[in-house]
Write a structure and sequence with these properties.
This protein is 38% helix and 16% strand. Helix 9 links the parallel strand 10 and strand 11. The termini are far apart. Strands 2-1-3-4-5-6 form a six-stranded parallel beta sheet, with helices on both faces. By secondary structure, the protein is of the alpha/beta class. The structure holds 5'-deoxyadenosine and iron/sulfur cluster.
Length: 399
């Protein structure tokens, strides 16, 4: 590989966790001598780091894969690969969600790697390039030459990521870095695919996290965002609040924040720590998901509307100039007008700085997917539009 530097294009979909994962993969591949390009057309290797959180996110990826595949010239080479053929990899949450069945829907994809196997990507690409050099495998009897000549590789076993992958020293930005503190999630909210694609919660050791931040600070990073699906559930030898205090003391670090928090694991102690840690941004993303107690229960969220309202009150009392944002899902199975109204009224009452509103989308394996999807699309759109409009006005007034 070292003789001619292969160019990699990586397209990211989804959340900040994916942004960081793409960065980790870049770091690993750079260390192996690969170059990166902003242009898919001229790349030798195209990676799609995918998201499964809603159907819409997946649809975008499928159409992008189709577009890239179409842009390849048709033709035969000794290996059965088209001469200008790129290696295409689907990685991330959709990879885990669909595993090797991705090859059935997108025959041009060469490899599939789930979020817990990203450390294997350099070796997989190497194997595919080596196979290409050797002219590929010979077709087996009865198999279509095009498909059998291509080697398909998939790694979706999961497991715990090796700690080294977080220490490549590569960050996209010169000043700001995302730092993963925990992977996966064990909350099993009834609508959410995350525990199925990213596995159950695994906390990184706090010493490793501190080491990564110190290394980053030594390299000039001054701002950090701590990442986890549910950061406040963090616990290794220290809990989340203790971790925040340790990070606050790191020399060279000027500012840090964290996403995402779960209301059931959020307390006044956290708010006090936020108020006391001068480097910690006074910003909290606290997804409420619904204002209806009945729906919150069906969502398996583990708190009530009043619990959430109390949290917000405490947050705003304890943390001065506190910024608050949220996520809300409309059209969850069986959501009636009065449930929706509860969400609408909650948004009005709390006056979030920003709210991200989503239309419910059934996800494979999740508990809610068994309850059907009984709120009509038009109705979801109406409810979505109404809260969006309300929040727009609130956000404008807050500026
Ligand atoms: N349908 C709609 N929105 C969802 N979210 C997560 N799963 C779904 C789903 N199945 C939203 C939640 C979460 C945000 C990242 O995406 O609001 O907080
Ligand atoms: Fe999408 Fe969730 Fe995966 Fe992030 S963790 S990429 S939001 S499915």
């Amino acid at each position: 590989m070292k003789e001619d530097k292969k160019k990699v294009f990586i397209k990211n979909f989804g959340c900040q966790m994916n942004v960081r994962d793409s960065e980790v993969i870049c770091g690993l591949l750079k260390n192996e001598g690969y170059e990166f390009t902003e242009e898919a057309n001229t790349a030798d290797i195209v990676l799609f780091n995918t998201c499964s959180v809603r159907q819409h996110a997946e649809d975008k990826v499928w159409s992008e894969i189709g577009r890239i595949a179409k842009s390849r010239k048709r033709g035969e080479s000794p290996s059965g690969r088209v001469p200008d053929k790129k290696i295409i990899g689907v990685i991330g949450c959709m990879a885990q969600n669909y595993k090797e069945s991705i090859f059935e829907r997108a025959a041009n994809v060469d490899f599939v790697v789930g979020p817990s196997d990203i450390q294997k990507i350099p070796a997989i690409i190497n194997t595919l390039l080596e196979t290409e050099k050797k002219g590929g495998e010979s077709p087996k009897q009865g198999e279509s030459p095009r498909f059998s000549n291509e080697r398909k590789i998939w790694e979706t076993d999961g497991g715990i990521r090796p700690e080294e992958i977080y220490h490549t020293g590569f960050y996209e930005d010169k000043e700001h870095a995302y730092v993963v503190i925990s992977e996966g999630c064990s909350n099993f909210c009834s609508y959410c695919v995350v525990p199925y694609v990213r596995g159950e919660l695994h906390n990184r050791n706090y010493k490793d996290i501190l080491k990564e931040i110190e290394e980053a600070a030594d390299a000039g990073i001054t701002k950090i965002t701590l990442l986890g699906q549910n950061v406040n559930a963090y616990s290794s030898q220290v809990n989340f609040i203790e971790l925040l205090k340790l990070i606050n003391d790191i020399k060279g670090l000027k500012e840090f924040s964290f996403i995402t928090s779960h209301p059931k694991d959020t307390s006044s102690d956290l708010f006090k720590a936020m108020a006391d840690s001068e480097k910690l941004k006074k910003y909290l993303h606290l997804p409420v998901q619904s204002g209806s107690d009945r729906i919150l229960k069906l969502m398996n969220r583990g708190y009530t509307r009043n619990f959430y309202l109390d949290l917000v009150k405490n947050y705003r009392t304890i943390v001065k100039s506190a910024v608050l944002t949220t996520d809300i899902i409309v059209g969850f199975p069986s959501e009636k007008e009065e449930d929706f109204q509860d969400s609408y009224d909650l948004v009005k009452e709390i006056q979030f700085n920003a709210a991200f509103i989503f239309k419910y989308s059934p996800r494979p394996n999740t508990q809610a997917a068994n309850s059907g999807d009984d709120v009509a699309r038009e109705e979801k759109e109406r409810r979505h539009g109404l809260i969006l409009e309300l929040q727009k006005k609130i956000s404008k007034n807050k500026k």
